[in-house]
Design a protein that fits this description.
By secondary structure, the protein is of the alpha+beta class. It has a single domain, classed as Creatinase/methionine aminopeptidase superfamily (Creatine Amidinohydrolase). It has 4 helices and 15 strands. Strands 8-7-9-14-15 form a 5-stranded antiparallel beta sheet. Strands 1, 2, 4 and 5 form a 4-stranded antiparallel beta sheet that branches. The chain is globular. The structure holds magnesium ion (2 copies).
Length: 254
Amino acid sequence: MINIKTPAEIDAMRTGGAILANILEEIKAYTQAGMTTHRLNEYAETLFAKYSVIPSFKGYQGFPAAICTAINDEVVHGIPNNAAIKTGDIIGVDAGVFYKNLHTDSAITFAVGSVSPIAQMLINETTNALWAGINMVKPGNQIGDVSYAIYNHLKKHNITVIPELIGHGVGHKLHEEPQVPNIGKQHSGPTLKPGMTFAIEPITCLGKRNIETLSDKWTIVTKDGSLACQQEHTVLVTTTGVEVLTEKKAFTNS
Ligand code: MG
Ligand code: MG
């Protein structure tokens, strides 16, 4: 069953999502070559405390950190560690905020210093694919319309979708219905209704689609070592279209 959120629940997710946007922006601004992802996680912990919110991921199925980090060929679910970030790396930071009993989920992938043109293309076009999907969100459209728009955009840029890693409903739980794949057919899947909230997250790479999980049992990497990217927002279906809940905006943390 797909939850329809009440106005009060939507307000809570709006505030939590805005806080999450601030947290991700502050982590990005803080990131420098020479730091470890462990240091980024420590900094993230101070931000969750500053905003008086709970990191959704910490303890989720035993995940040991507040954020997931993913450098270069790491795709998603990376545990922050003591490897140093280097100039020319791309780094993904994925985080969730739990506020007033509701989760929001968002991820960014960005360049550390200047990166190769193809790495920058992967970041830009995965972001544009996320927005192509977001732009399909309105009452009456279907999840397949979102999935198709994401895939169609990525295909034009020869970017590979990793099909088993998908978006999802979010709110009462970190992962709830519906599933939001990054490949799909138009006019298929659940119909969008006002009050639905879900995370859209194209997860891509430059090489083959095959992935594997490292011995830490969490970090997923591309098998061929190609660069990977994730860009994610939590969205709300409104009566007329879409509201992106995890964009930076003014909020009051009451
Ligand atoms: Mg996420
Ligand atoms: Mg997600």
